[in-house]
Amino acid sequence: MSTPFEKPQIISHIQKSLNYTIFDCKWIPCSAKLVCLGNLARGTGVLQIYEVQGGELKLNREIEKAKPFKCGTFGATSLQQRHLATGDFDGNLHIWDLEAATEPLYSVKAHKEIVNSLDGVGGLGVGDGAPEIVTGSRDGTVKVWDPRQKDTPVANMEPGAGEAKRDCWTVAFGHAFNQQDRCVCAGYDNGDIKLFDLRNMAVRWETNIKNGVCCVEFDRKDINMNKLVATSLEGTFHVFDMRTQHPTKGFASVSEKGHKSTIWQVRHLPQNRDVFMTAGGAGNLHLWKYDYPAQRSGEDSEGGAVGVAGTVNLLQNVTLSTQPIASLDWSPDKQGLCVCSAFDQSVRVLIVTKLNRV
User: Fold this and answer.
1) In whole angstroms, what is the distance from residue 100 CA to residue 102 CA?
2) CA-CA distance, 197 to 286, in Å (whole number)?
3) Residue among 172, 147, 34, 23 nearest 93 (CA)
4) In terms of Cα–Cα distance, which of 239, 314, 325, 248 is closest to 280?
5) Burial of 46 from C-beta contacts in 10 A (0-12 / 13-18 / 19+)
6) Which of 18, 70, 76, 306 sits between 20 and 30 A of 342, alpha carbons compared?
7) CB–CB of 82/72 below 8 Å?
8) How many CB atoms lie within 10 A of CB 78?
9) What would the DSSP string read from start to end of 1-42?
């Protein structure tokens, strides 16, 4: 018989109050440091670098910029450089050298309105191909940028003439397992999820989950597409098995009413792609494990391959705040170490135990 202590525990290790609204936090790879991005009360942007030292978060550096920061990623940079790409409220994409961040290394007016989400691939030793950054904006467009190419995106996915533009809330890279293939998944405020094949510059698949899509993430960026999790406003998330695409039914999926409120983010454990954490609007975190079915695909009546979805099991949950937890990031280096930020203007470093046993 299993006892509660055999399950993973989510422990709040360090909590730090901030004097600004924090929108995103990220571990700096190969370090005990993290970066916080947000919006000061006077309407400017702030970027802070903290180091975990002796059970506390010590502020190393603070940088203030004209526009509030919304999101950041290290995904398109090498482990040697560790440059941070940021999206801001004015539609700008910047890349910063955190050692000398007075001026950005790369700057482009990426969108007409706020950059809601961005993701990077091709750096950090993850994913083949060029180091690229994808941005999704309130202006309804999704663009892919190569920092080596100035001013123009390498791909621009926008609504066609006469189509309504929808607010793009989330973007994610995946399928970057060789030099040619790469996909971008985008989620929109009306529940649309679109999968763009960058090799063929075409929409490979689309669906609608009936509720605004807050976050999408592949379980791994650098493998042949395996699983995709999409979270929504109403507290439901969907796990799509991306290995078998049926011509009419698309991808098999399982949905779970995970939270009583909006699920702001989902993040897969870097050391185990079947474990992921969801962050909720009621200040809670839920840790899940996906279990594969005995057979991942079957046949339809015409003999075509059709995917079979697995099941999702809740491993643990914890309430940390009275406000939404808006960002979450696992440490790529230490299993079970993660950081999250909430709208109570605080950042928390968490330790999740027993992940090697799930």
Assistant:
1) 6
2) 31
3) 147
4) 325
5) buried
6) 76
7) no
8) 14
9) ---GGGS--EEEEEEEE-SSEEEEEEEPTTSSEEEEEEE-TT
Query: 76 is written with which tokens?
Result: 């398109």
Q: Which bin fits 264, alpha (ψ -120 to 50), beta or left (φ > 0)?
A: alpha
In sequence order, what are the residues at sequence separation of 6 or more whose Cβ sits closer than 8 angstroms to the Cβ of residue 353?
8, 9, 11, 336
246 pLDDT above the threshold of 90 = yes
Query: How far is the C-alpha of 190 from the C-alpha of 193, rounded, in Å?
Result: 9
| 8-state DSSP, 265 | E
Cα(146)–Cα(227) distance, integer angstroms: 26
Instruction: Write down the pTM of the prediction.
Output: 0.95
Q: What is the pLDDT of residue 1?
A: 47
In angstroms, rounded to a whole number, what is the distance separating the alpha carbons of residues 87 and 66?
13
> pLDDT tens for residues 175-229?
999 999 999 999 999 999 999 999 999 999 999 999 999 999 999 999 999 999 9
- How far is the C-alpha of 278 from the C-alpha of 255, rounded, in Å? 13
Q: Which residues contact 339 (CB under 8 A, 6 or more apart)?
A: 25, 26, 27, 34, 328, 329, 331, 347, 348, 349, 350
Secondary structure (3-state) at 203 = strand
User: Per the structure block, which two tokens stand in for 152?
Assistant: 């123009």
* Whether 212 contacts 190, CB under 8 Å: yes
Type of residue at 7: K
**Residue 2 pLDDT exceeds 60:** no
Q: What is d(CA 93, CA 86) in angstroms, rounded to the nearest whole number?
A: 6
* Token pair of 74 as six digits: 């290290």
- In order, the DSSP letters of 108-170 are EE--SS-EEEEEEES-TT-SSSS-EEEEEETTS-EEEE-TTS-SS-SEEE-PPTTPPP--EEE
Please give the torsion angle defined by the CA atoms of residues 80, 126, 337 and 73, in that order, rounded to the nearest 10 degrees: 70
